[in-house]
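Hi L., both proteins are below.
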Amino acid sequence: MGYIKLGQSSSTLSGGENQRVKLACYLGMERQQPTLFVFDEPTTGLHFHDIKTLLKAFNALIDRGHTLVVIEHNMDVIKCADHIIDLGPEGGKDGGMLICEGTPEEVAACKKSYTGQFLIKGKLAEGGCPIPKVTN
């Protein structure tokens, strides 16, 4: 986000940039009441290094007692989740059904889950989450 200028109008930012600016502001505040954060595909357009930074920020929020709901398609983020709710099996009119839910390992064991198939074939085998999880 180094290309954004101090005082730049928020109307010039993308949705993802707005989410990240709000996240940075919240992390800079003193302890707040536990809050539920909802992030809609926050990794869109981010380099892998920036995704790691975002995951660290998410863990900082969790460490402060907040709850995060993240709608995401990036498996590097999904495999770091404490709990996954997998909807499908497809998109649009062919989707929206609960396929399975649970930890990444439990979803990986669900044969009818596309997410689970992807997790078991590669991402979980590659060493799990690149950022250590915070467990409360």
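That was the first. Here is the second:
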Amino acid sequence: MFNSLLGAKARVMNAPGTTVLLERGSYRYGDETWNLVDTPGTYSLLPLSPDEEVASQAAMGTDGQPQPDLIVAALDATNIARSLYFLAMVLELGRPTVVALTMNDLARRNNVGLDPAELSATLGGVPVVEVDGRTGKGASTLMETIAASFHGTPMPRGLHAIDTHSVDVASWVEDNADARFEWAAHVLEHLNLESRARITRSDRIDRVLLNPVFGILAFLAVMFIVFQATTWLAGPMQDWIDGSVREWCEAGINTVFSWFGPNATDSWFHGLIVDGILDGCITVLTFLPPMGIMFIMLSLLEDSGYLARAAFVMDKAMRAMHLDGRAFLPIVIGFGCNLPALAATRTLPDSRQRVLVGMLVPFSSCTARLSVYLVLAYAFFRDQAGLVVFLMYVCSVLLILGVGILLRQVKFRDLQSEPFAMSLPPYQVPRLVTLVRSVLVKLWDFIKGASSIIITMIAFMWLLQSIPATANAGSFGHVDDVHQSVYGVVADTVAPVFAPAGFDDWHASAALMTGFVAKEVVVGSLGQSYAINSGNEDEQQQGEGTLGEAIRHSFDESSGGHGRAAAVAFLLFTLAYTPCLATVAELKRQFGRKIAWQTVGLGLVTAYILAVLAFQTLRWVL
């Protein structure tokens, strides 16, 4: 409904002093501009969570929030009984109020459709407008009704207006509860819905999808399809962007530089443009296919009504961390890509849950880390490579559970497990136009929020690789050996930190540094550094001809002959530390700078502890 009024013009922002998401926007009607604020959904003005508190403050105009000139209360026609008590509280605020009746088309199919004029008369003259949020039908009538109701709406008989500045909310809610219930019962009796109700198609489907056994199996099947669709469809597109698009862009840049002379393409500025800025832009573009596909799949699940069922089915599994079932979906999505998983945390109604799940999502082993798992698994455990990769995903699940329980005990002590109740929407076919618009808006938000950080950091990595650190390393922009650049020196400086984990080698530390930008470049970084340092024929004949052999040789050397234990430690470090720079940017955009860097620090500390413990234990076994 909100998007029907504003199109794609809404702005997502946090409520002041909170991490609760609000949407703001404006539209023109007649000669005036109307400003709208969309609050989190709630069924009561007595707040029990930060989300409900923000919604209550916005409706009542308390705690620094501006007084609303008019309130639009959205009522779901398929479950009108649940909304009437809340509507009574809104009407008692004494503000002009318009009821937006949604989902009435589905209610008619179930023989419980409502006549807006009859409902308005039953409510004592409160304006009621039927709105279809998917098609936008009724939006213009709603705008007209808002303008006409701006100066006041009648108070239904049985309800009494309050002074929001002086009232104690808890006392008000309790003292007048009986009157509200009586009023709601009177409205329902007049509408006579129970006699018309019948078993719906959604009810029949839910008998299977909400079954404790078949429901979980169905959810796992759906998530497998989502995950496979993301990887299968996005992979070729990412390869095309990283291959063909990169080649076309480089060719175009080279053509432009050739206009300035035959040596222009050898300049450091050309290196900055191609290996710094262009590489950053290509990295951003390669994230768009998996994010776009995941956003499409999520929107399909949400708009169809299945997402609410999945949350209900997985509720018990999340109770160990005092989370409810809705928190499971972002974590599962994280096994495909952490970026859309972080965006999916916006579906959680409680801001504390949203932050906790956001801090756990980076521990979901995304597909970008799979390339690292495969290379090291084949290098050290060729006959058991598949088992090793599988165990990495098992470790990811155990890590999420362990860190989640730890965070709940340390940082989220006030996060208590509460009964999980939610309204299950009827199943429906998603509308294509709404779906595409929603996905494009989300992708554009990512590009605006994360691209500048990613491009800047990749350009900074190029700068470090282009500055010679020794007299014989070459000139700026033309370093012959990356090991002799500032980047290589920094990697050499950092390497001893990993001695307790068994891989105090500059190749490994350099790969982990580039992996902070994107895990996709870890294997490329290893290949580049080993190729530079093992390029002569004698070394290749001694077993340095392949990347796997080079990694085995250096890990064996750095670990004192315990290369397999060091490989496991490296894999665990890769699993646990920051997935990529884009994830940090998305964390900052969703939760703020403080939470973003706390999550980065948590990942680094956890990764280091795991790597050290793994090596110090496994070196006696492997």
